[in-house]
């Protein structure tokens, strides 16, 4: 019977590792899959019947997105920006916490929330509606510069060479999108500043109203993701335009301290006089443009109609009954158009009602999809916790060390090495890579713990090597149960990875972390046995040598 005890914990950890391995593989496949879109770009334009555009507020647009900067360079990069134009809005926008460069551009161009779309591949980005598709459809001039392979260009270009030839284009109904990776493109901040100044001089000379949006995506941004909560990352942005001022008045640009990235996307479409991309549920920032309230309301209703269509697009993805979708569509249209809104405040309130209704559908569908995973993880966590508490008095020493091990791991990852919590590029996401990253991080922590515990076992607890191994079993069981409690909490709060209902990337990253740790548990336990045995033999040899010398 005693020998059987030796195999209970290793066998249990091996079973958990195999189960975690299968779940991990499924998650990676879903994250890297390229599902057939419900509608291609051509079908979107045909099905949704894009409306006639309105007169643009700003005719010339330049969007510059910069990646590759370190987080510490952000404040230095912004020093010269307010000097370029006095009418400037600066703040931060929120987006997914990931190091995937293409996905950051996709979020900016499409305005899709990370928790709503199921596309995570370059082909998927191309087939999804976004601002460049809109500009082409409405016959606007387009210039795109990027050295990033695949997206947003099919063929990457040398950004420095292409722009140095003729400068950034300007003209009526012109859109220029410049993506710069400071390392890959070898561009300095001063060069970027010179390009912007030259662009502004060209538009002012031609008396063309222009707007510039400058977005900074840090190389690693871990401000929002943690083991406790899931919020998005934040990155600086700067916006300014050359709209003429009213006589005797100055344009009032209110600071935007925290702007969702989908709102930035919607604002650009709003300024062009076109609907937002299908799938964008962002709300335009009206105070960037000095318009009369009646004109703002008219444009906002035009925008709200497309938002309703985008909501229906997602409800179709969720595979709800046609009757439910039709009912939502009729109710949403009545909310906006049944009676005229008295003012912009009332119209915004009605718009928010539509968004709230859609969010309730989304939340209901997410709960329905995740009810089985939530139930399974909750029951497993409760059962394991009860068994753990029942054995606490008998194994309090090892359980205490296990909880301490877990707490140290979480605190180090959260506060000392937070970059580990930012999701890497999707294409580079592999099981061996994640396991190696976890191994290199947890091995030093585990090594120190096992050495300290073995020393204490010999000099304080006065127990044998066999009892040390049983305590190591208890340490790993305690660590695993703490991890299971965290995973169950995450699944209940944020959902599980499921096609068409992908949870936020921070949730996916934490689930990858948890499953990879479980996969490593048997190997780490065997490593702990060996390390403790080696130290025990060394201590015994030293003790024997001292006795002989004395």
> Which blocks of ≥5 consecutive residues have pLDDT under 50?
250-255
Rg calculated over all Cα atoms: 28 Å
List the quaternary state of the chains. single chain
Strand order of the largest sheet: 3-4-1-5-6-2-7
Strand fraction: 5-15%
Using the alpha-carbon principal axes, give the shape.
elongated
Number of strands: 7
Q: Biggest β-sheet: count, sense, barrel? A: 7 strands, mixed
Which descriptors would you attach to this protein?
550 residues, alpha/beta, 7-stranded mixed β-sheet, 9% strand, elongated
Describe the structure.
- With 550 residues, the chain is of the alpha/beta class.
- Helix 5 crosses helix 10 and helix 11 runs antiparallel to helix 12.
- It has a seven-stranded mixed beta sheet with strand order 3-4-1-5-6-2-7, sandwiched between helices.
- The protein has 17 helices and seven strands.
- The longest helix has 47 residues.
